Amino acid sequence: MIMTVNGQTKTCGLIGNPVEHTLSPVIHNLLAEMTGKNLIYVPFRVEGENLADAVKGAAALGIKGLNVTVPYKERILPFLTDVDALAQKIGAVNTLVQESGGYIGYNTDMPGLYRAMLSDGVSVDGEDVIILGAGGVARAVALMLSEKARRIFLLNRTEQKALDIAGEVNGYAGRQAVKAMPLSAWRKLPDGKYLAVQATSVGMHPRTDDVPIEDADFYKRIHTGYDLIYNPFETRFMKLVKKEGGKAFNGLKMLLYQGIIAYELWNGLSVSGEQAGKIYERLRESL
Ligand code: NAP
Hints:
Blueprint: E1 10-16, H1 24-35, E2 39-45, H2 51-60, E3 65-68, E4 82-83, H3 85-90, E5 95-99, E6 102-106, H4 109-119, E7 128-132, H5 136-145, E8 151-156, H6 159-173, E9 178-182, E10 194-198, H7 216-219, E11 222-227, H8 236-243, E12 247-249, H9 252-267, H10 273-286
Parallel strand pairs: 1-2, 1-3, 4-6, 7-8, 7-10, 8-9, 10-11, 11-12
Antiparallel strand pairs: 3-5, 5-6
């Protein structure tokens, strides 16, 4: 895939631990080829105690941009020269752009999810939304959707984590946009049809038979189910949504668009819908 590496080649990459199964090189090396940039993208596995040195070393080597993945999205913040406003609000970065003296941090995960939903024709405006989970991603999803959705019900196995997020997001939103509930209390959801975002890690490969809620009655309330997991391509959650007549999507487009937005930041260009479609097909083949 990498055509020619020469004296002018720019480097971008990913830091995280582990990084061995990442699909990001597929996205960025293909984008470089499509947009005619002399750029390569490489994964770097970094041990926790070396994180500060890794950021300093990357800047010294002139690495143009970096993605950041688990477990460093929050931990890396003190080592950056600046953090953009949205990433500050979310409290996590997944993209670093080189500037003089270091890196500025961005979060392209949430704009990525938003662009993925737009591309799938899923609207959040005025919707009643269920978010399953209260981890780092669920928190960011709740923050993003609180600006557009009518009501958000945040359901988590550990209720306290959902309560903490609801308090924080409602503070930002200036209204009671988010209501926290334990996962087991889903029957207390008000009647109606919901957009549901599955933001737990349940059902991810290799435990593909797992699902956060089993009961068919839960899925009867869902008109659209958005699972942030993309491996497997069709999760059990998605199957149960479809079985009760809803539409279901996975997280592969979120992955695609967080990468595209990062690439756009690094290179100051716009990636077309046609280019995005080609990369999506390549990602599907790589799964
Ligand atoms: P996290 O911070 O580790 O949170 C995990 C969440 O899953 C918590 O709410 C946890 O509940 C819940 N959970 C775990 N095991 C459970 C079980 N057996 N039963 C019920 N709930 C359970 O993870 P994260 O970083 O937010 O990521 C969440 C998901 O998003 C992951 O699957 C990840 O693959 C996906 N993701 C997708 C993309 C993309 O581009 N598509 C990007 C980032 C993440 P407790 O609080 O009770 O432990």
